[in-house]
Amino acid sequence: MLSQETLDEYRRMTPGERLELTFELIRENTPYLLVGSPAVVRRRFELLERENTLRTRNIMAALQRLPRRLRSDHD
Questions:
Q1: Is residue 21 domain-shared with residue 54, that is, in the same domain?
Q2: Distance between CA atoms of 50 and 29, rounded to whole angstroms?
Q3: What is the Cα–Cα distance from 20 to 22, expressed in whole angstroms?
Q4: How far is Cα 35 from Cα 41, in angstroms, rounded to an integer?
Q5: Are 45 and 68 found together in one domain?
Q6: CA dist., res. 10 & res. 21, Å (int)
Q7: Which of 9, 33, 44, 73 has the maximum number of C-beta atoms within 10 A of its C-beta?
Q8: Mutual orientation of helices 38-65 and 15-33 as an angle, nearest 10°?
């Protein structure tokens, strides 16, 4: 869980600053994703795909539960 200070700092960031932070984290962590045998790397990416799919499914389910008037701008 992130501290309240960290959350507040993140909320104060502009979208561009958040995007730059995302790219920085990707650059820093990509080498670690590629360490290991091809089978280990494949399993690692399969896990990431499953996690991303589940996260997307949960987001879509939450959006579907919103009142129609709140969803209409995004349809």
A1: no
A2: 19
A3: 5
A4: 7
A5: yes
A6: 10
A7: 44
A8: 150
- Domain residue limits at 48: 36-75
Residue with tokens 């290991």: 36
Q: How big is the CA angle at 44 (ends 38 and 53), to the nearest 5 degrees?
A: 135
* Same domain (yes/no): 48, 68: yes
Residues near 13 by beta carbon (within 8 Å), at least 6 away in sequence:
21
| pTM metric for this prediction | 0.62
Q: Which two tokens stand for residue 63?
A: 């959006």
Whether the CB-CB separation of 45 and 33 falls below 8 Å is answered with yes
